Amino acid sequence: MRIATFNINNIVSRLAVLTAWLETEAPDVVCLQELKADQAAFPRAALEALGYQAAWKGQRTWNGVAILARDMTPVVTRTALPGEPDRSQSRYIEAAVNGVLIACLYLPNGNPVPGPKFDYKLAWFEAFLAHAENLMASGAPVVLAGDYNVVPTEADLYPNHSYGGNALLRPESRAAFQRLLDQGWTDALRAVHPEGPLWTFWSYLRFRWPKDKGLRIDHLLCSPEIASQLTDAGVDRWVRGLEAASDHAPAWIEIDR
User: Fold this and answer.
1) Fewest C-beta atoms under 10 Å: which of 4, 89, 190, 206?
2) Is position 236 annotated in a ligand binding site?
3) Per DSSP, what are the bridge partners of residue 232?
4) Per the annotation, does 147 bind a ligand?
5) CATH code for position 114
6) Going by C-beta distance under 8 Å and a sequence separation of 6 or more, which residues neighbour residue 92?
7) How far from the centroid of its chain's Cα atoms is residue 141's Cα?
8) 248 labelled as ligand-binding?
């Protein structure tokens, strides 16, 4: 069972990119972020033609999250994070797929720092930590997948970078991510590839894609049962090189289930 996460950065304008990836890689479950489309604009028919059923929570212009399942229907359990500080922003959806609880999240960026956007990022993270702890305590097989907007360590971005002071690297952001891992979640990409670059994001600015100056901010965290079934993980870098691509590439895990 292959579970992927992909910040599509506008599902309507990048539907061809999404379609090319789905047709080539055929993941079983996909978590999408930054739909940037309201509920009615979601391309349901186009995805169903590819064999994918979907659950989504849209938002015009910004945000928006979705869970796709190949030849299955996601059974929605939540369309908002409990205790979420601003429910007008579509950042969380949760569904059961083939016996696995899938959480799809788009954690706030938090820039500029300091300021209200960074305060909101940390408040959202606190609500997510509380819910993740409850999910862990339930003993259910869970995958927390999405764009976390956190670079966990200096090994997770290019050397001699220019991101100093950015909210993605702030000590508070990294500490919150570590608290999540301390609950017992496994960072699946690093579990399979403990060393080396695993970039999932390359800014459109300053030729960072052709220069391979990337960051790892898209993560799939697994509960103990899922972690014990983990067989592979990776990043489909080729998607970032497509015409009119998102600034992210899909990250994925493979589990024996």
Assistant:
1) 206
2) no
3) 254
4) yes
5) 3.60.10.10
6) 57, 65, 78, 79, 80, 81, 84, 103, 104, 105, 106, 128
7) 18
8) yes
Report pTM. 0.98
Query: CA-CA distance, 99 to 141, in Å (whole number)?
Result: 8
Domain of residue 124, residue span: 2-255
Count the domains in the chain. 1
Question: Per the annotation, does 28 bind a ligand?
Answer: no
Three state DSSP letters for the chain = CEEEEEECCCCCCCHHHHHHHHHHHCCCEEEEECCCCCHHHCCHHHHHHCCEEEEEECCCCCCCEEEEEECCCCEEEECCCCCCCCCCCCCEEEEEECCEEEEEEECCCCCCCCCHHHHHHHHHHHHHHHHHHHHHHHCCCEEEEEECCCCCCHHHECCCCCCCCCCCCCHHHHHHHHHHHHCCCEEHHHHHCCCCCCCCECCCHHHCCCCCCCECCEEEEECHHHHHCEEEEEECHHHHHCCCCCCECCEEEEECC
Q: What is the pLDDT of residues 30-71, one digit of tens each?
A: 999 999 999 999 999 999 999 999 999 999 999 999 999 999
